[in-house]
Amino acid sequence: MAQYPVVVYGASGYTGMLIMDWLIDQKIPFTAVARDAKRAKEMMAQRVVRLESATYELIECEHNVEALTKVFRGAKVVCDTVGPFARFGLTTVEAALKAGCHHIDTTGEQSYMRAVREQFGHLYAQAGLLVSPSISYMYTFAEIAAELALETQGVDTLETATLCRGPRDSAGVSVGSAASIFELLRSQHFYLWEKQLLAHPVTASFNVVDPNFIQPILALPWGGTSLPIYFENDSRVRSCSSCVGFYDNNVMQLVHGLAQKWDAEYKHLPPEQQDSVLKSMVDSTTPTMPPRERTTIQRTVDVAIGRGQLAAVRATVTGVTPYISTGALQVAAVTRLLDGDTAKVGFASASKAFGHRYLLGFLEQRGLARATVQAL
Question: Is 213 inside any structural domain?
Answer without folding.
Answer: yes
